[in-house]
Amino acid sequence: MRLLIIGAGFAGMYAALSSARLRDIQGVSPDDLEIALIAPEPTLVVRPRLYEPKPETLTAPLLDVLRAIDVDYIQGSAETIDTKARMVQIATPRGTRTTLSYDRLVIATGSRLFRPNIPGLAEHGFSVDSLDDAIALDKHLHGLADRPAVNGRDTVVVAGGGFTGIEAATELPARLRNIFGKDSRTRVIIVERNSAIAPDMGENPRPLIEDALRKLGVEMRLGAGVVSLDKSGVTLSTGEHIETETVVWAAGIRAAPLTAQIPAEHDNFGRLLVDRDLRVPVVAGVFATGDAARAACDDEGNYALMSCQHATRMGAFAGNNAAAELLGVPTRPYHQKAYVTCLDLGEAGAVFTRGWERKVELVGDVAKKTKQEINTVWIYPPKAERAAALASADPERVTSL
């Protein structure tokens, strides 16, 4: 029997850990249940931190962890999925293609930044969506110091006032001072289509976020969208033109394109609709998890968000349940009633909320310490020690917060 997992992000990593854990509990040999993970690199990109400086350091190796739990790593990119034949075609780094069969498949392919067809965006926009994107932005920012201080060189526009946009924008004043000098006069401007900043976070934390932006000198353009970019800067839907050499696009994400190959229902974000076991109901043998799945967290109408907080726990349930079906043992319905947010606000600290109503519990430096612990400890892979790694993946206990 073979269980294939596509993706080495938070959901894929925990799917591998959890399926191997159940196999171990059931006393089944890796020869009898092969678990394999497919990804271009055996590396976890710590995507929630890519708004920080030195993004090239924000990865964690997975190969030793996978070896410790007897999960095979297959280097390559899954290109096509044939759900009727239960086959996955993989493009290898050598330019060849190979095909693997599966008995159960876990799709943990994550998400991608949504880049609309805005004139100039592809040529002139930056992002912190992927490791390569974040490295390119960091290199660009450092290169600005060698350019003349004209034509908006010292101005950065962040398009999108949601979670990612706010974290990127509030980190930028310090990043720019480190590049241009502590006495430099830089501008950071957030452009948000909605009438309020952080539209998805609700009203409870918003005054704290607005106050942090004011303290940092981050400007806001609310009720405005980006309509075009060129070498001179960015033009907004209000008609305003802002001179800048740096536009960071942070306006929404969608499920990775591979999910579109599964002949099942998808939501507006491209996510596969799954049942409480994270199974794709109409496609035999396929589970979806993390940002690839639209999953109910509880019985109150709350659904998992596209975040590592939900991806880790969803991955653990998906991996466990895919293995459980093959081993003939009961599955465990996914649930995640606890929900918190911890929004980094750069030098202004952070804000920590609990519950879907976003009740504020921690602010400022205290919240910042929690955010730093989350970012540097809690979301990283377990140590490559078999017993500890397997123990970390109990679906009922896995949480990134």
Automatic annotation (TrEMBL):
Domain of life, per lineage: Bacteria
Boundaries of every FAD/NAD(P)-binding domain copy: 2-315
SUPFAM superfamilies according to UniProt: FAD/NAD(P)-binding domain (SSF51905)
Keyword annotations: FAD, Flavoprotein, NAD, Oxidoreductase
Any one GO molecular-function label of the UniProt entry: oxidoreductase activity
Gene3D superfamilies for this protein: 3.50.50.100
InterPro entries: FAD/NAD-bd_sf, FAD/NAD-binding_dom, NDH-2
PANTHER family assigned: NADH DEHYDROGENASE, NADH DEHYDROGENASE-LIKE PROTEIN RV1812C
Family membership: Belongs to the NADH dehydrogenase family.
Listed name of the protein: Bll2792 protein
